[in-house]
Write a structure and sequence with these properties.
Radius of gyration: 24 Å
Order of helices and strands: EHEHHEHEHEHEHEHHHEEEHEEEEEEHHE
Shape: globular
Largest sheet: 9 strands, mixed
Helix content: 25-40%
Number of helices: 13
Strand order of the largest sheet: 16-15-14-13-7-12-11-8-17
Length: about 475
């Protein structure tokens, strides 16, 4: 039973709120997941009347649910929603905000703050909430959800942590990585630990290597300013892909409680072998997309043209090789790669098994967790092709769909908002996970920063650049 609470959305008029958060909360309400008396206080920097805000909410829902939605739920949802203008020019803004929330007959004092704001505002807002007593847990619990990224390197992450931990305990801080809310990722641990056929072979004795992939056909679009200061390595590998790796390779937790799951992820991430100073070129590769042609879009510009900077060395393709210093994974290369403007889109985890001592020849055995666009788990085995030729073999794909017709569709943000108000931190990052991830990524960024060479180019609409194969541990390995 979820306790009654108040969800406070900072950045309520922003794109994330409009596209994901408000429609997601409506779906949770429609599914009966929200407490009856729960209120949603939407906080924005612009003045707006309650009637204007209700019209905006209706517009968000109409855009999201084109086939219509339940009128009864809509009326209940609208009554939950209250708008509050936190005007930046008003020095008393947060005191007025506190006075508003302290109307106990209206708002539960179990307060969950969702900070969908600029990263530079995270620490400031936490300070301001504390200054007006809104983080005091004397009367009800207080939780703060902080959007990605948590810092831009190890030092800034530590600085941010020191700032907010003056006011918040670790069990009050919910550092979001929205990939962890995806049902297909949640399914990885179940698939690994609930099926006895996998665990005995999930180790270096049987596994050749692992590939964790995120490919997109899209370019940087209107995110040029953000992307130019971030790049693919920070944007995807530092957060999403390292978390996917942790779920794929962590040891079985003592229980599936939030704390036990996080403990094993922390242990795994802290076991990553640092890249030695003379090995960066064989462990980390980067490139940029050039002009080309994308299916459905036609001809598209190069990254350099989009950002208007012909000297940019920001990567849109990044691939790294990782080794984990544990008995289970000793010597197994793990490849993480992410790219924009490739010929196809998809996110998956591909586990390649070693060739056994077979009289027939090399095998082609893989276990693949497909995260998106299709949620499935597949096993590839070698079988004989029917016919008179005894030696003709082919790979056979045994696929199990994780999502079938009739299954409920839940957006990752819906899962994570429900976790926030129910107090489940298992799908949020502990500060030690954040530190371990930056500790691995920072040296690569430092090396690339010091070696300002022109990046390899790959045509938009093509596949992985051939030069990316430099990170492979074995010449027989290939990008799946």
């Amino acid at each position: 039973m979820i306790e009654n609470s108040t969800l406070v959305l900072f950045g309520a008029k922003g794109n994330l709120s409009r596209v994901k958060l408000v429609p997601g909360l409506f779906h949770l309400d429609e599914s009966g997941q929200l407490p009856d008396d729960m209120k949603i206080l939407s906080v924005g920097r612009q003045a707006s009347t309650q009637d204007e805000w209700k019209k905006e909410i209706k517009g968000m829902l109409d855009k999201k649910f084109k086939d219509g939605y339940c009128e009864k739920t809509y009326k209940r949802f609208i009554e939950r929603n209250i708008y509050h203008a936190n005007l930046t020019e008003d020095p008393e803004a947060f005191q007025k905000f506190s006075n508003k929330l302290n109307e106990e007959n209206l708002f539960s004092q179990n307060l969950a703050f969702f900070l969908s704001v600029r990263p530079s505002d995270f620490s400031l807002i936490v300070d301001q909430l504390a200054d007006v007593g809104l983080l005091d847990q004397t009367n009800g619990w207080k939780r703060v959800l902080i959007e990605k990224p948590f810092g831009t390197n190890l030092k800034s992450a530590i600085d941010l942590q020191e700032s907010i931990s003056k006011h918040l305990n670790e069990d009050q801080i919910y550092r979001i990585d929205h990939y962890l809310g995806k049902s297909a990722l949640q399914n990885i641990l179940v698939t690994r630990f609930a099926n006895s056929i996998l665990e005995p072979i999930w180790n270096s004795f049987h596994i050749d290597h692992i590939q964790i992939t995120n490919h997109e056909m899209l370019g940087v679009g209107d995110r040029t300013t953000f992307y130019e200061s971030t790049g693919a390595l920070r944007d995807m590998i530092q957060s999403h892909l390292l978390q996917m790796m942790a779920l794929t390779t962590m040891e079985q937790p003592k229980s599936f409680s939030p704390n036990d799951i996080r403990k094993e992820k922390i242990k795994l991430l802290e076991s990553i072998t640092p890249i030695s100073q003379n090995n960066f070129k064989n462990h980390a590769f980067r490139a940029q997309y050039a002009a080309g042609e994308i299916k459905g879009e036609g001809k598209v510009d190069s990254y350099l043209s989009e950002v208007g900077n012909q000297d940019s060395i920001t990567e849109t393709y990044a691939a790294v090789k990782i080794f984990i210093d544990t008995p289970r994974w000793k010597g197994v290369p793990i490849y993480l790669r992410t790219a924009k403007r490739l010929s196809s889109s998809g996110t998956n985890i591909s586990v390649k098994f070693k060739n056994g001592d077979s009289l027939i020849g090399d095998n082609n055995n893989w276990v693949v967790f497909n995260i998106q666009p299709k949620e499935s788990t597949s096993i590839e085995i070698t079988t004989k092709t029917p016919g008179l030729n005894e030696n003709e073999l082919r790979p056979t794909n045994l696929e199990g769909l994780n999502r079938i017709d009739g299954d409920e569709s839940i957006d990752a943000y819906e899962t994570l908002m429900l976790d926030l108000i129910s107090g489940n931190q298992s799908r949020f990052l502990h500060i030690d996970e954040v530190k371990a991830q930056w500790k691995f990524i920072d040296p690569i960024i430092d090396f690339w920063t010091k070696n300002k060479v022109k990046l390899d180019q790959y045509n938009s609409g093509s596949s992985d650049p051939d030069s990316s194969r430099i990170i492979f541990e074995d010449p027989s390995q290939f990008w799946r």
